[in-house]
Specification:
197 residues, alpha+beta, Aminopeptidase, four-stranded antiparallel beta sheet, three-stranded antiparallel beta sheet, 6 helices, 37% helix, disordered N terminus, binds coenzyme A
């Protein structure tokens, strides 16, 4: 177990150092005491009933601000309902678990992140990715993005838009790995990216 701990800590340190190199402050400590085993699968509506509340609790104010553009304490029921609507075509999501986390009533492990596209009648679907705070910087966001883009290709989605707060360095680093093209957003605080699937 000790050697596994070291591997997690060294991964976290490496990523922390690479952020320091880019003059981005390290935001939090990683508290995981085991090597995460990241698995992903397509999300179904029941996942949101089962896991949404506990995962939301594990997002700090900054993560909530970056994800919802305001540091919400709780989400209005209408937003929750909208997020839980995944039909696999117009709206689809990938959920990530840490299968090495041994939790009661969690046969697949601990839910640690979700990536989705959300249909938009006025244009391409919109992308979002969320990883709970303790698992950020460990490659979970990248795994979610990879899986979401594979799913999008399978379902015939050709283009996805992402609106990202300009100050959100982590999401901007993540999306830039997918040859994202910057589009006009009409808002100086928001960078709009187009990802060709
Ligand atoms: C943005 C987010 C999804 C990234 O997920 P993650 O699991 O931390 O990302 P990964 O570990 O896969 O890293 C992806 C890239 O982001 C970089 N990164 C991660 N955290 C970072 C940080 N705090 N600052 C700067 N870059 C960071 C990584 O170095 C990596 O880039 P590289 O390949 O060039 O090294 C996650 O930080 C998050 O959920 N944030 C809060 C919610 C949010 O902002 N969602 C996006 C709304 S659209």
């Amino acid at each position: 177990m000790a050697s596994l701990d070291c591997r997690v800590n060294s991964t976290a340190r490496r990523r922390a150092n690479s952020r320091t190199d880019r003059a981005v402050p390290f935001r939090h400590h990683v508290h995981i005491d085991h090597m995460p085993l990241i698995i992903t699968r397509e999300a179904v509506p029941e996942d949101f009933d089962r896991y949404f509340a506990e995962a939301f609790e594990e997002l700090g104010p900054e993560s909530r601000h970056f994800r919802f553009f305001t540091a919400v304490r709780e989400l209005p029921p209408g937003v929750l309902e909208r997020l839980a609507h995944v039909d696999g075509m117009v709206d689809a999501a990938i959920i990530a678990f840490d299968a090495a986390a041994d939790l009661p009533n969690h046969p697949e492990g601990k839910p640690i992140g979700v990536a989705r596209w959300m249909g938009n009648p006025e244009g391409p679907p919109e992308l979002s990715v969320t990883v709970i705070d303790d698992y950020q910087g460990l490659g979970v966001g990248s795994r979610l993005m990879d899986a979401l883009l594979v799913l999008a290709r399978k379902r015939g989605v050709r283009r996805i838009i992402a609106d990202v707060l300009r100050e959100n360095s982590a999401m901007r680093a993540l999306i830039n790995r997918y040859r994202a093209v910057v589009q006009p957003s009409g808002d100086p605080l928001i960078v709009r990216y187009r990802v060709d699937v």
